[in-house]
């Protein structure tokens, strides 16, 4: 029996550049979708009305390459192509209102950040990004915008992916060497 193609329930239009990343609000009752584009714009979609609010989160030439939540949905974190990470305070409508912290990681390649979710060895609100040396990673405290841990080089090549897999394992780093490091 042939399968029918899935049809979208809704199509959200509004970005003027390629959408680079998406993230749902962690509280399912919020019914909000966050999208970031190549022009540095974040749109906050109300999925009930399909209307959006717009925030210029990063410079147009930087774009938004990743968007995520930290600290039990109290902070929205965006990463630009220029290596800048911004932690945003959220207003009553769950939209980014003002930066809480902004810092340059000096990381200029495509590896997306990883946001900590209760890892034991890092602050509650922390983010890991590939370091200035693309074969290393650095964990930053979002509250102080300071480096807290430097993770040494992978055996060969650059960091391709980062994650905080469990509270007891601080960071998972995947490199070009076809290996995962904890």
Write the layout of secondary structure elements.
Elements: E1 19-24, E2 32-37, E3 41-46, E4 51-56, E5 64-70, E6 75-80, E7 84-90, E8 96-104, E9 114-115, E10 126-130, E11 137-141, E12 146-151, E13 159-163, E14 172-175, E15 180-181
Antiparallel strand pairs: 1-2, 2-3, 3-4, 5-6, 6-7, 7-8, 9-10, 10-11, 11-12, 13-14, 14-15
Q: Spans with pLDDT under 50 lasting ≥5 residues?
A: none
Task: For the record, give the distance between the C-alpha atoms at the N and C termini, rounded to a whole number.
Answer: 45 Å
What is the number of helices? 0
**Spatial ordering of strands, largest sheet:** 1-2-3-4
Over all CA atoms, what is the radius of gyration?
17 Å
Principal-axis shape equals globular
What would the keywords be for this entry?
mainly beta, Thrombin, subunit H, 4-stranded antiparallel beta sheet, 15 strands
